[in-house]
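User: I've been going back and forth on whether these two constructs are worth ordering. Before I decide, could you fold them both?

Assistant: Sure. I'll take them in the order you sent them. The first construct and its structure tokens:
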Amino acid sequence: MSIPHLSPVLVTTSTGESFPVRRLFCIGRNYAAHAREMGANPDREPPFFFTAWSETVVPGGGEIAYPQGTADYHHEVELVVAIGASGRNVPVETALSLVHGFAVGLDMTRRDLQAEAKSAGRPWDVAKNVEQSKPVGIIRTDRGFDPTSGIIALAVNGREKQRGDLSDMIWSVPEIIAHISSFYRLEPGDLIFTGTPSGVGPVAVGDTLACMIAGLEPLTVSICPPEI
């Protein structure tokens, strides 16, 4: 039997080059207001992370399919960090030296299946590690972007649903990098989704999602019918 060779998922950078995606690390409950809307206590429960396949990434956005197995598919706009250098046990003070660039991203979630997993004390894979669930915009690679502050927002069909500021993150980008690198060696091609502000909610087939972070290329996604 011949096993087909799988090409890497390539995200475009602001210089026109391609960024081959290796792994995804996703931070949960990194904005206090979102943690509260999900029933968590940000003062008691620190942020955490989970992983996802590179195949979930949709470079540049466009159309994504409403997945099977859910009736409650939610949007979560996030700042995405593209890693360009290797590092393990990286100090917070030097963590930004691993960064290749930043982009706008979406972490789409089967919320009903996530709620079931939470109540049963089970992993969230079926809720989060979903085909076409991680659209990523153009990666800005110059050093002019400041990840410590700036508006992050999402609108559905022109109506704003999420709005926050990067300064609201509980863990900063350097702290996130340092934390993940204490468990895994970060490598070029890794993407880190840094969490979402409050206002997450359901989407429907036909909806258009407009995502923005001040200083980055916006990301637009349309929800199409489930794949057969």
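The second construct, handled the same way:
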Amino acid sequence: MHNTGHLSPDQIRTPLTAAQRMAAGIPHRVVRLKGPFSALLGRIGKLGVVTVLTGNDSVIQEHTGIYDDTACRCAGDLCSGESAHPPRPFHQQWKYGFAVDGREDDGHVGRLLQFFDADGNGVHKILLHDSGSADAFHAIVSEFTAAEQSPVLDILHTALSAATGKILRVDVDALRTDWACADQTAVGFMGQTEFDSGRLHKLRLVGKAFAHQVGKDSVRIVLQKMADLGCSVVTLTGNAGVMQAYQGQPEQIRSGDAWLDILNRDYRLRLREDHIDTVWVAKKPTADGMMTSLELFNRRGIGIARLFSKPEPGKPERREWRDAILRLAPVFGV
């Protein structure tokens, strides 16, 4: 019989997290990084062209460009008005960082930086493009190499999100009064860059004038309509550690095997449609008129992604976007 020390049976059966699997590659292809990760991100622009991946278990946004402190700009002139809004990191949630540098099975040399939260879940991933600077990558890794380089990473799992299974106490009258007050367009957009853990509960309480549920296939319908009309869409997704918004015209929409994909030249979004439990239309008054969003939630009531029209200060949202949203059949009585 093997001696398991003080480990409980539950601990023995706990599968390795993504961070622990990454650490297992030390010292062959993997180097553990030290913080502050905010300072590390400030160096990423030196890498040149990178591919950035941000998302969660249900959706991943992937875009290629020049990463800097304000945005990941499209490479060259490929983007035709498309852009990634500035990533909004919540560094208090960033616990582990790693660099990977080495030859893969197909002979390609892969270099990437990846960050994880305290539970070992992936937060943010940055891949060096073939045209990027390997010298700058090595300089960043050298500057931020941690003293501890053990391939064994001990992670004490925290409890599930406090949002799970909890019903927040909400002053309904105050909620509706606040919601009805017009915000500046930019404030209305940026105020939703964090996935509020009580967002779904608030949508259910704010009233049908401001929020109602629609069918699970609504996101596919709306994205295809915007692609057909050549209209820009803002897609917002992320996790506990970072939020990222991308603005651009959907070029190709593909659906199959539970996946919905947007395929643009320098941008890709992959969404697990089978993870969508509810979809909501939210309407928020702003100084430039009503702002309409399409919001996706999983079975735990946690936000997966949000979609908007282009937020231009001083201009109302595009009529094509609003018409497409408001033509979705409401789902009442649920």
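Notes on the second construct follow. Confidence is low (pLDDT under 50) at residues 1-5, 70-81, 159-165. The CA atoms of residues 49 and 130 lie 8 Å apart.
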